[in-house]
């Protein structure tokens, strides 16, 4: 495996981890403001805390790297979370799609380079 592939993996996974941990901490510590945003996007506010927990657990699963199945679920969950966030912001026309776009790019790159790492480890 090339050294730059390892760098790209850790860079994209680090950005993904940072985004998810910051997002989860905002969900918990700035709940009132986040609830207003969720309401403006048409989402129920009762999913804020479960989403925060899911984001932290997803990052833990990706970083611990013990179960490929759970890791696939975490990547898929993050992708759909970002996709729904992108379209929610797009539909209400608030101009906040950039964060979801960056997050989708980070999850895609992290997944691609994780697969390269796994393929290299098996050979």
Task: Break the fold down into its secondary structure elements and pairings.
Elements: H1 3-29, H2 31-41, H3 48-64, H4 68-92, H5 97-122
Helix pairs in contact: 1-3, 1-5, 3-4, 4-5
The total domain count is 1
Q: Return the average pLDDT rounded to an integer.
A: 93
Major beta sheet summary: none
- Stretches with pLDDT under 50, minimum 5 residues: none
- SS class: mainly alpha
The H-and-E topology, N to C, reads as HHHHH
Global outline: elongated
Strand content: under 5%
Question: Any idea what the radius of gyration is?
Answer: 15 Å
- How many separate helices? 5
> How far apart lie the N and C ends?
10 Å
* Number of DSSP strand runs: 0
Structural overview:
The protein has 123 residues and is mainly α. The chain has one domain. Helices cover 86% and strands 0% of the residues. It has 5 helices and no strands. The radius of gyration is 15 Å and the shape is elongated. The N and C termini lie close together (10 Å). The model has no long low-confidence stretch (mean pLDDT 93).
């Amino acid at each position: 495996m090339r050294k730059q592939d390892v760098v790209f993996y850790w860079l994209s996974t680090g950005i993904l981890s940072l985004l998810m941990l910051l997002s989860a901490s905002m969900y918990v510590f700035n709940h009132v403001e986040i609830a207003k945003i969720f309401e403006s996007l048409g989402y129920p506010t009762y999913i804020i805390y479960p989403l925060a927990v899911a984001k932290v657990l997803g990052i833990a699963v990706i970083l611990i790297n013990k179960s490929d199945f759970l890791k696939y679920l975490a990547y898929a969950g993050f992708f759909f979370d970002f996709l729904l966030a992108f379209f929610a912001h797009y539909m209400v026309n608030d101009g906040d799609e950039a964060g979801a776009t960056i997050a989708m790019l980070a999850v895609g790159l992290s997944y691609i380079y994780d697969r390269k790492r796994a393929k290299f480890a098996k050979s």
